[in-house]
């Protein structure tokens, strides 16, 4: 079972709902997390159960970041809107930085999300074994 998070900026929420709906069968057996409104929209359109955190601007990105920092999260689908300034941009950058430090894959567009989900569908979880074996900050650096 993987721990997967969904985050989508306002103008990307519909795209996220459509994506998760299309791959509901892949996500069903996994532990799912999301920021507030994104998770609500997904649950309204699927039968998936999602642990919802606060809205991104209210700290939801940081709550997901805490799971990344603890090396609990396996990957994140974060559909960002690159054409709209976000008032909580520092939180977004902090989350992406944590993912880089911990070696957690982040899909920031639908094409990359598709690649990650196809890997999950194949049962290809090798990246998690590598992350645990060569965790940053250890003698394996």
Automatic annotation (TrEMBL):
Gene3D superfamilies: Methylglyoxal synthase-like domain. InterPro entries: Methylgl_synth, Methylglyoxal_synth_AS, MGS-like_dom, MGS-like_dom_sf. It catalyses: dihydroxyacetone phosphate = methylglyoxal + phosphate. Its EC number is 4.2.3.3. Signal peptide: none annotated. GO terms for biological process: methylglyoxal biosynthetic process. Belongs to the methylglyoxal synthase family. NCBIfam families: MGSA (TIGR00160), PRK05234.1 (NF003559). Catalyzes the formation of methylglyoxal from dihydroxyacetone phosphate. This is Methylglyoxal synthase. It comes from Paenibacillus curdlanolyticus YK9.
């Amino acid at each position: 079972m993987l721990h997967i998070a969904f985050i989508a900026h306002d103008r990307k929420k519909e795209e996220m709902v459509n994506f998760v709906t299309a791959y509901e069968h892949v996500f069903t057996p996994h532990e799912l997390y999301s920021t507030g409104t994104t998770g609500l929209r997904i649950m309204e359109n699927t039968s998936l159960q999602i642990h919802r955190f606060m809205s991104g601007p209210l700290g939801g990105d940081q709550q997901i970041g805490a799971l990344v920092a603890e090396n609990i999260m396996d990957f994140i689908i974060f559909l960002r809107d690159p054409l709209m300034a976000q008032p909580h941009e520092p939180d977004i950058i902090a989350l992406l930085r944590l993912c880089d430090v911990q070696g957690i894959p982040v899909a920031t567009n639908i094409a990359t999300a598709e690649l990650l989900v196809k890997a999950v569908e194949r049962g290809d979880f090798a990246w998690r074994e590598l992350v645990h074996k060569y965790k940053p900050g250890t003698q394996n650096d």
